[in-house]
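Pinned message: reference record for CAD12 protein
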Amino acid sequence: GAYVLQVKATDADDPTYGNSARVVYSILQGQPYFSIDPKTGVIRTALPNMDREVKEQYQVLIQAKDMGGQLGGLAGTTTVNITLTDVNDNPPRFPKSIFHLKVPESSHVGSAIGRIRAVDPDFGKNAEIEYNIVPGDGGNLFDITTDENTQEGVIKLKKPLDFETKKAYTFKVEASNLHLDHRFHSVGPFKDTATVKINVLDMDEPPVFSKPVYTMEVYEDTPVGTIIGAVTAQDLDAGSSSVRYFIDWKNDVDSYFTIDATEGTIATNELLDRESTAQYNFSIIASKVSNPLLTSKVNVIINVLDVNEFPPEISVPYETSVCENAKPGQVIQTVTAADKDLSPAGQKFSFRLSAEASNKPNFTVHDYRNNTAGIETRRNGYSRRQQELYFLPVVIEDSSYPVQSSTNTMTIRVCRCDPDGTILSCNVEAIFLPVGLSTGALIAILLCIVILLVIVVLYVALRRQKKKNTLMTSKEDIRDNVIHYDDEGGGEEDTQAFDIGALRNPKVIEDNKIRRDIKPDTLRFLRHRPPVEDNTDIKDFINQRLQENDVDPTAPPYDSLATYAYEGNGSVAESLSSIDSLTTEADQDYDYLSDWGPRFKILADMFGEEESYNPDKVT
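Predicted structure (tokens):
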């Protein structure tokens, strides 16, 4: 009886004439699903609860017929297509009441471990389903969401699983429609529930450390090999395996410690210094013996505890000044202390004069009890003429254990000041103290400068001496002189690299003295030799003198030593040196002497073949 639509037919006959224009409606096709009112043409459903999921579209053939006339009843037809519109009148239903899932314990948090599905015969948004886990066993470890494309429930892992802790989980999942139609509330609840059972599968897992982070403490300068702590890891799998430990080496700092591979004990490998490094941070890796690829890592923090090993010292400055017109009780300097140890919170330093300085009436130390102290005067006025410097030994002591103390000597210089206490002048040393120079240092610097100046002067004098020409000063024959040169020449053909005047003595040449190396039988008439020009080549000079001696008939045929500064070319005898001579005289060949001319004939006969030599023929 639900209204669907209304159809209307028109008749062109005169409505005032009989029943010719009166129309009656009827259904020729479409029963028993629909009915029509004969008079009004209203179409209604004929069956209750028509189901779109069974049939969605219907074709209804409608006939309109008039009531008569001379030609009898005339009729017309039309087809009406009716489509059922879906409504949310069906709840979702699980195809089975229990779902079984198997999940490895190594599954990652947030990963999908299984899917379940409820069926809703509706269409479109009426078929959208929402899944929820019923509060209970699995609410803390699992979560479920809806896949919008398949309308499946995707079960995800919220926390890691552990087979050794719990092997199975059971919980319920509820599926319900997102979009409800209030017209069908009476039909019943639009939701369904199912049970999910999850079995955890045992997997081979890495060892597990007993703590997420290990923190240890050790005193500095602890002997090498001292155990300072231990880490512990266990294999929680059913077949428990042994565990091995090692340090995750990343830098040289890790070498300060070692770990026992079996016990996991950590020991020092080097001496530790808290002043250098106060904390060490490295990682320990544990692996299963049965499967070394399965490893786990833990962070280890080692704090180095301080040992009071350094005494406190006065912070700079170690030097101060006092005015000549200073009054008793006047503070001339406030000093603080510094400790190379990393001082703990609440560290206290105390200041006092040393025992030997306590009896002197010049200065005193006033400890302010706040890790500072003041140097105060104890007399009325000071004189630079009587004493320029005062040395004040100050003892500083810390409060750590064991107690450390040191004596620090402060230098106090007396200066001239105006009535307001402003320093007017001090001696030279006081001026240079701020830059770290003393009188001794200044004297050493000046002495070094003087030595450098002397060295420079001597070096310049020697250089000038070397530049002087070392000409021959002897009046002896040129052949009896040896000339030394400090400069290397350019070769035999280089005549510009030396002074040719040093190779000849014009006075000896012009005197034409008789040769002194032999005793002549008769006196020779001296010939005038042309003077040698200054630009004459040394080769030409030697050749000229050689020619003069070769053509001189009065020259004796005796051996004489003549030193020439030029080595000639093309000598038949080659070198006359004995260095390359044969080992015995018999092995030598003197036949070449015959080729030297008549002046060497006697020498050739003497050293030639023995049968050719006749002493009686020698004249």
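Pinned by admin. Summary line: The CA atoms of residues 322 and 414 lie 5 Å apart.
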